[in-house]
């Protein structure tokens, strides 16, 4: 573990220096890892583990689009690709990476085929934390761990291929063998994490659901819409409104923040921009803090979990979801975005 001072708070993290890939491979030598689910997180984690030299098989529902996707990625039916039950039966480590709804529906099958001493791995604390609603209660004779990459499975894979990595949290929920924590770290290194920071299942899901509904997706989309609509209302063209709302942020400013921090980005903009941003950030912070408190409370009380579970159980959920996504996609804001992206230099024929 490495002790790092994060703005005055000391935190222990695990890096590849003290837990290199060779150590992870040695720790899991002789273990068969079954990645159940090949949708969002499954492909990235499975392929990274395979490329890093671990023994990996994939479990997926036969006949699904994800089954074919796994075949296209080189997983061979009967050799490295199996139905969920058979993959679970063959594994020492079961990585349960189906969607939250999929985990609920397939849990009876998976639970039936877990063996004493197995490791049950999650990348989201949802199922276990909200067990009264999901019914996912792990057997008492298996290790239960979590590694949660802080990003999409696609990003995890892309960064891995570039020799980089996504940071991940890790947690131990149940340690039967006495080695669960080290297994989690080894798997975290194996899937391509940049560094690992320790958490708890409950804290992971609380922060994750808050982030998704907040700054990562819900809040940023709402802010985009609010500013774009105000600019359009006051006579600005779609191109101008989009560039000032989305394009400059994503293409110019956020890469600078990612590379050097918000303070550096502020220091390298005009004095007019600096002054306005420094003044208005307080108002945005103070205005939105009560909303974030309301959001966190909705997550922590299980309300958000109940909404998700209930929605996914409705037979027409997919149709309604597609209608909502279509409304977003077809809005002037994001139709403008489609055209602006085509005009970026990398798409130019000149």
Write the layout of secondary structure elements.
Blueprint (H helix, E strand, L loop, with lengths): L1 E5 L2 E7 L5 H7 L4 E5 L5 H10 L3 E5 L5 H8 L8 E2 L1 H7 L2 E4 L3 H14 L5 E4 L3 H4 L1 H4 L8 E7 L3 H9 L4 E9 L5 H11 L2 E6 L2 H13 L4 H16 L4 H23 L1 H6 L3 H30 L2 H11 L3 H14 L1 H11 L8
Parallel strand pairs: 3-4, 3-6, 4-5, 6-7, 7-8, 9-10
Antiparallel strand pairs: 1-2, 2-10, 8-9
Helix pairs in contact: 1-9, 2-8, 4-5, 10-14, 11-12, 12-17
Question: Which terms summarize this structure?
Answer:
15% strand, N-(1-d-carboxylethyl)-l-norvaline Dehydrogenase, domain 2, alpha/beta, ten-stranded mixed beta sheet, 2 domains
Strand content: 15-25%
- The gross shape turns out to be globular
Mean pLDDT: 95
Helix content: 55-70%
Tally of domains: 2
Total count of strands? 10
